[in-house]
Amino acid sequence: MIAKIEQLLKEVEAMHASNAEELEALRIKYLSKKGAINNLMADFRNVAAEQKKVVGMKLNELKTIAQDKINALKEQFENQDNGCDGVDLTRSAYPVELGTRHPLSIVKNEIIDIFARLGFSIAEGPEIEDDWHVFSALNFAEDHPARDMQDTFFIESHPDILLRTHTSSVQTRVMEASQPPIRIICPGRVYRNEAISYRAHCFFHQVEALYVDKEVSFTDLKQVLLLFAKEMFGADTKIRLRPSYFPFTEPSAEMDISCNICGGKGCPFCKHTGWVEILGCGMVDPNVLDANGIDSKIYSGYALGMGIERITNLKYQVKDLRMFSENDTRFLKEFEAAY
Ligand SMILES: [Zn+2]
Question: How many Å apart are CA 118 and CA 192, to the nearest integer?
Fold first, then answer.
């Protein structure tokens, strides 16, 4: 009896099936009612009483091993059947969500589009810059506060290297590498050493425009500004220029537009003045032209720059600047229809 059990055990352990039919044949041969193991069970009553315990244990062991082996082979076939390790190919697919364009990209592209129609081409430059291209070549005085660590991110071990604080550095790079006529627009990210709050961030985005040629005048600048404001905020938009100061332009001005939220009547957004500030501009300081290899006796130019976040705020009234960099899809999806 023991010898028979051992023989069957060897057979069971060597069981092999290459398809479901072979497996079923094995199950019938060993585990069915008239199978080999049940036949042994039937012989069990003839075993001598003193051997019953040992033989019984062996028989049960054989039956368990045979059952486990059949189950293991069966599982193997089931996984092979769909070829995907248990993945249910009949289940419907997860929906794929389409992304939307970021509001800052939408507005940046709108600004670029307006200037492109006026003949401006896009210029780009590095975000990690040196002092010359960000400050010195733009007529910043040695002791200008923008050069202070409080306002600008410098590389500690190399104080000449910094994160650009404005995209004007692209203007200097274009001027030093080419001669007028220059008509460029420079969109990009800039960095300031600011505490992050709802109205300030350590990085934001600018678009600057530069036009240098013979006989460029303030009139040209004003006309471009008016056209830009009307294209961007609607044909009824009015502009006004206030005198200002920037190191790189002379004269300099800041431009306000009639508040597009209240139509100029006065609201909390425009602090009840009817006007909102949107950009800085001016005639390129002759010192800047000369520092960048352009003869200021022959050429003149204008420059203007604006924050993309500021323009986006005016168009969409986003109250918290931080939302632009949080990548919350609930916020981003609100601009789905905007492009
Ligand atoms: Zn208003």
Answer: 31
